[in-house]
């Protein structure tokens, strides 16, 4: 059997974030290398056996195993076989129970799977204990390639479609697979001829059904920039939004020499409001793409709500209008406290990236969206066809901001390359612009 | 001459116009490169569960953004 080498993440998770990474990680050979060829017997009449190396083989040999369950016993092999079969059945793939067996990983009994080429390309993800989405992804690509219409789809569209439905770990691919399944099961699609089917398959690239409203990826895999943090110092009567108050001031200085000042109230009213911490601001700032960060001069944790809230409440007929964050083209970001709980770090970081992406794009490419860098971006949009979430499709400015957000929040983990497969032209621009 | 600010709701496709002096100064004006710049257009659009407001100047420059958190 051919030994496949899996892609290793471009940047390893930092110690700061590695505690969140799933055991066994995504990709790389480390997980396989740790799999011991155990002496555990296959269950009688069970699924393990012939297709796998025997227990006596060299324990250091690497085989492309995937782990379906840890802490397993012999009875779990059949249960995991059923779990696998359910997924493969959805995409017309034939399950093969002989691909499963009980083994040991670092002394822990596990149900392991050896991938069959008839299910499609082998997933990069080795840890399948939490979800079989990686299996679903590859089976979906195989299913789409099996359609009569595949030969009627343009080569570039094929690559985008495979990237769209074949992503193992990202949010958008899950939506795309759901839309693809609906299409493949549609009698009208099945009855259509090759060219008509091909057009409908290609239509998935731009379909609202094949993307989330907003791509909302966790930011825990983001690689932080290197920085030093100085402070706090005290500042009397700092002009916060809506009121003067004493402030504590930190200075975050990055490796490239840029500094960002962080202001927080010296005596926050914690009885009334919930505040983000300075640590959370530092975490978010350290994860901004460099180009975004360079447009950022100050971040302020305001001691009270945005004084403009009352106006917006009337303007939008929303009595409880609450501004979470404001940003100015001068690079000043203000975060307002909440009377309930503050949102998550993920939310803050991705909002940070999105809003500073607006500042970066207008400052870099100018205000006329029909000139300069905007033209190159528009060409890339037309070539890629896929939009990362429906919000990106609202305008070219939002497409830039959302694509930068996805680029910035996934860089350093496998989702990054999955999104690149969907929007390669835009990611190529950002490779140059955000380096 | 009285300056007007156009408020666009991109989702509803509606536009309303208000005189600059009717709105708070911090909405009607924005700082750019250390100068006070008049806001002439505010575009609101839902972003997931949130609403994003963008304030633009006469030359089309994005001057300020506001994220309304809902829920």
Characterization of the model:
The complex is a heterodimer of chains A (435) and B (71). Chain A has 435 residues and is of the alpha+beta class. Helix content of chain A is 38%, strand content 16%. Chain A is built from 16 helices and ten strands. Chain A has helices spanning 15-18, 30-34, 75-90, 133-146, 155-166, 171-184, 187-191, 194-203, 278-286, 290-293, 309-315, 345-365, 373-384, 396-410, 414-422, 424-433; strands spanning 35-36, 65-70, 100-105, 108-114, 227-240, 243-254, 259-265, 298-301, 323-328, 332-335. In chain A, strands 5-6-7-8-10-9 form a six-stranded mixed sheet, covered by helices on one side. In chain A, strands 1-3-4-2 form a four-stranded antiparallel sheet. The longest helix of chain A has 21 residues, at 345-365. Mean pLDDT of chain A is 85; it is low at 1-62. By secondary structure, chain B is mainly β.
Please summarize what this structure is.
The complex is a heterodimer of chains A (435) and B (71). With 435 residues, chain A is of the alpha+beta class.
Helix amount of chain A, in percent?
25-40%
Shape designation of chain B: globular
Query: What fraction strand of chain B?
Result: over 45%
Distance between the termini of chain B: 41 Å
Count of discrete alpha- or pi-helical segments spanning 4 or more residues of chain B: 1
**Strand and helix order of chain B:** EEHEEEE
Query: How confident is the prediction overall: mean pLDDT of chain A?
Result: 85
SS elements, strand count of chain B: 6
Q: Portion of residues in helices of chain B?
A: under 10%
Summing up helix and strand content along with how strands pair, one would put the structural category of chain B as mainly beta
Instruction: Give the total of beta strands of chain A.
Output: 10
* Radius of gyration of chain A, CA atoms, in whole angstroms: 25 Å
Q: Radius of gyration of chain B from the CA trace?
A: 12 Å
Instruction: Summarize model confidence as the mean pLDDT of chain B.
Output: 92
Order of helices and strands of chain A: HHEEHEEHHHHHEEEHHEHEEHHHHH
- Oligomeric grouping of the chains: heterodimer
Number of helices of chain A: 16
């Amino acid at each position: 059997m051919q030994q496949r080498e899996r892609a290793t993440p471009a940047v390893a998770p930092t110690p700061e974030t590695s505690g969140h990474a799933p055991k066994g990680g995504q990709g790389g050979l480390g997980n396989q290398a740790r799999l011991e060829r155990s002496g555990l017997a296959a269950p009688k009449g069970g699924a393990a056996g012939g297709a796998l190396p025997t227990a006596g083989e060299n324990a250091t040999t690497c085989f492309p195993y995937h782990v379906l369950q840890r802490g397993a016993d012999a009875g779990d092999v059949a249960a995991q076989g059923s779990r696998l079969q359910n997924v493969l059945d959805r995409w017309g793939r034939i399950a093969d129970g002989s691909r499963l067996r009980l083994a040991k990983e670092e002394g822990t009994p596990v149900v392991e799977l050896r991938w069959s080429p008839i299910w499609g390309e082998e997933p990069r993800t080795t840890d399948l204990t939490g979800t079989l989405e990686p299996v679903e992804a590859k089976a979906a690509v195989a299913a789409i390639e099996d359609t009569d219409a595949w030969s009627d789809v343009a080569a570039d569209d094929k690559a985008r479609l495979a990237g769209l439905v074949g992503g193992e770990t990202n949010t958008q691919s899950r939506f795309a697979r759901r839309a693809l399944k609906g299409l493949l099961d549609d009698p009208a699609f099945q009855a259509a001829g090759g060219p008509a089917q091909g057009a409908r398959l290609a239509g998935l690239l731009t379909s609202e059904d094949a993307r989330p409203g907003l791509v909302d990826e966790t930011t825990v895999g983001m690689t932080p920039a290197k920085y030093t943090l100085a402070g706090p110092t005290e500042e009397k009567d700092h002009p916060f939004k809506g009121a003067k108050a004493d402030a504590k001031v930190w200075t975050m200085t990055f490796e490239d020499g840029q500094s960002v000042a962080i202001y927080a109230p010296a005596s926050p009213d914690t009885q009334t409001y919930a505040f983000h911490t300075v640590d959370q601001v530092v975490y978010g700032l350290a994860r901004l793409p460099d180009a975004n960060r360079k447009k950022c001069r100050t971040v302020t944790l305001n001691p009270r709500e945005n004084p403009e809230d009352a106006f917006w409440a009337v303007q939008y007929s929303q009595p409880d209008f609450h501004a979470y964050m404001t940003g100015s083209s001068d690079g000043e970001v203000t975060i307002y406290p909440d009377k309930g709980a503050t949102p998550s770090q993920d939310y803050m970081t991705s909002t940070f990236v999105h809003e500073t992406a607006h500042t970066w794009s207008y400052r870099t490419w100018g205000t006329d969206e029909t000139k300069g860098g905007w033209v190159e971006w528009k060409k890339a949009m037309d070539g890629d066809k896929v939009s990362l979430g429906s919000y990106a499709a609202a305008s070219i400015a939002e497409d830039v901001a959302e694509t930068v957000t996805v680029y910035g929040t996934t860089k350093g983990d496998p989702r990054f390359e999955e999104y690149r497969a969907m929007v390669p032209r835009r990611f190529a621009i950002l490779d140059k612009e955000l380096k | 001459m009285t300056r007007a600010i156009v408020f666009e709701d991109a989702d509803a496709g509606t536009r309303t116009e208000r005189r600059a002096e009717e709105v708070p100064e911090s909405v009607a004006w924005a700082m750019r490169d250390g100068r006070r710049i008049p806001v002439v257009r505010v575009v609101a659009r839902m972003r997931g569960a949130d609403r994003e407001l963008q304030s633009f100047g006469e030359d089309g420059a994005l001057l300020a953004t506001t994220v309304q958190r809902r829920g």
